[in-house]
Amino acid sequence: MTLIGASRVIVALDTTDLERAAAWAAATAPHVALFKLGLEFFLAHGAAGVRAMAGRPIFLDLKLHDIPNTVAGGVRAVLPLAPRMLTIHAAGGAAMIAAARQAADSAGEARPMILAVTVLTSLDAAALASTGVTDAPAVQVLRLARLALSAGADGLVCSPQEVAMLRSALGPDAKLVVPGIRPVGSAAGDQARIMTPAEAVAAGADWIVVGRPITGADDPGAAAAAIDAATR
Ligand code: C5P
User: Fold this and answer.
1) pLDDT of residue 190
2) How far is CA 75 from each of CA 130, 171, 220, rounded to the nearest angstrom?
């Protein structure tokens, strides 16, 4: 797992428009650690789309969740793209998480960090209960977080609401990546629980994921620079 630069900012390039993604990346590159490409971009453009990002450091947010053998195959399939981070669902269980980590290890030193998603933030207590999990969401988040780390994940993607709890429960080594970030004065959009960049870092985030406050700004480069400065 290679080190990532000094910035704590990850920009979410949420678009299926390749040229737009490349332009956002070019504008913000001096101020950010990684570029997050999600399911939408990957299903539209595949490996060729990632390669079109011209060697920029990538976080592939694919949230893999399948039987261990299939997830391991999926991880190996994207290793040639050299993603720096890759997401899986912790709910896939210990064997699946371990298989993902083992597959990532085959890339050696340059392996991607394996980050686990615990409970989707779109699930409230009632929705979670309807899947058979009657514990409070925070209890299930911590249970899956511990499971993921003990099975070989490097860290977690977590909401602003969870980051302080996870940092205090898991200690300094767990990597915590936090979306749902809004700079002071910016629109919340559809994010219900938000933190400012500085608050998220103070609460224990190693990296923050920021989409629209950067990509929707008149000057994405300046917006990224301001958020980078606020988190150093
Ligand atoms: O535009 P915005 O800053 O809200 O983008 C946040 C990014 O983080 C999006 O790519 C979104 O899918 C992702 N994300 C999130 N909330 C989660 C998990 C991921 O907003 N709980």
Assistant:
1) 83
2) 30, 27, 31
Is 63 a known active-site residue? Answer: yes
Tell me the pLDDT band of 184, cut-offs 50, 70 and 90. confident
For a mutational test of ligand 1's pocket, the pick from 128, 186, 209, i.e. the residue with the most ligand atoms closer than 8 A to its C-beta, is: 209
Cβ neighbours for 194, distance < 8 A, ≥ 6 positions apart: 160, 180, 181, 182, 188
Average pLDDT over the chain, rounded to an integer: 96
- The string of DSSP codes covering 30-89 is GG-SEEEEEHHHHHHHHHHHHHTTTT--EEEEEEE-S-HHHHHHHHHHHGGG--SEEEEE
Q: At residue 55, what is the residue type?
A: G
- Residue 192, pLDDT > 80, answer no
- Entry field: residues in the chain: 232
CATH no., domain 9-230: 3.20.20.70
Domain ranges of the chain: 9-230
Catalytic annotation, pick one of 1, 63, 146, 152: 63
What's residue 2's pLDDT? Answer: 64
Joined tokens for residue 140: 């299930």
C-alpha of residue 43 to centroid of ligand 1, in Å: 17
